[in-house]
Amino acid sequence: MSYTDEFRAFARRHGVSDDAITRILWTVRPSTHLGMVRPGAIRPEHHVVGRIGGLPDLPLDTPWENGEYFVADIDLSAIPRQPLYDGLPREGRLLLFSSVDYHGAGDDPARVVHVPPGTPTALRPAPVYEGSHPMFVGDVQKLVEPRVLVLDSATGWDVLDWLWNDPYAEWNEEEATWIAQLGAAIEEYRARVGETPVVEQSTGHLGGVEMNPPYWRADYGREFLRRREEAVITLRDAPERFDELYALALEQASEQEDGLWVNLLEFGEDSLHHTGDGEVGWIIERKDLLAQRFDRVRHSYNC
Q1: FRET partner for 228 with CA separation of 20 to 30 A, picked from 72, 81, 116, 119?
Q2: Which residue(s) pair with 132 in the sheet?
């Protein structure tokens, strides 16, 4: 049973209609919203899920390369499960690095290390940066202020392509109807299931969608929504075809030959290291996320 079948079965048990389930599965991605707190400000009610900055606790056979700085250590076992699968493993830790050369360089490789439970690890001293980048003099690890990652919201849904509460959007009547149908589906889910996913466009989250996704990465606009409404009708008699129809729609939405890239983690640049007002993200192909191939992560930077 696929994760979409599992979500449909879960929602059906709570009385959510198949039409609403299809619209949700088609148009939202699950996310976990994170906040940053200085170590001295942690309170008993905080749900700690990781940390920002400091030194990484790396597997013994994993190097820390020159030109990298350590960004985050996320405890995957501390991330609560939600009904809609987010593609993340539920054990071990994710260590995320950035490069001094990523800034404005496009979608460059970015190192993410998944550390399974029981792996021998050790804290590593930061390598001395040997390059000549004017922003990075001395210890590059000082760029990231050490903080603690806490859970802001365990259950979040990010809507694709700024379809949700976009103050600049000008939708025609048909598009406005499709978007309203999604709103009604989410409200139906809330009423039937009894929990309220946070639906917002923001940084500081695992999964979900990028705050400002480049237009060439995928187009989730009119044609994607049209295919959604066609699928709503088809799936009333054949719900088992969802994965087939959705995979085709995602393939057609992407203009890139190397597959559909989705958000793994994104922070606001100002909250991460106070050097700008863009978004710093780690992206991964959808098929690689589902296969947990974190060695294939790339950077995304939007200003």
Answers
A1: 81
A2: none
Sequence-distant (6+) residues with CB within 8 A of 189 are 11, 16, 20, 24, 197
Give residue 195's pLDDT.
84
What is the pLDDT at residue 191?
96
- Six token digits for residue 13: 């048990």
Tokens of 136: 């990075």
Got the DSSP string for 174-238? HHHHHHHHHHHHHHHHHHHH----EE---SSEEES--SS--TTT---SHHHHHHHHHHHHHHTT-
CB contact at 8 A, 27 and 93:
no
Cα–Cα distance, 203 to 212 (Å, whole number): 10
Phi, psi of 23 (to 5 degrees): -65, -35
Cβ-in-10-Å burial (0-12, 13-18, 19+) of 14 comes to middle
Residues with pLDDT less than 50, the chain: 105
* Element of type H or E holding 106: none
DSSP letter for 246, please: H
The pLDDT value given to residue 65 = 82
Dist CA 93 CA 100 (whole Å): 23
pTM: 0.90
Measured distance CA(209)–CA(201) in Å, rounded: 8
Rounded CA gap, 228 and 282, in Å? 27
pLDDT at residue 168 in the model: 58
Query: If you ran DSSP here, which 8-state letter would residue 87 be given?
Result: S
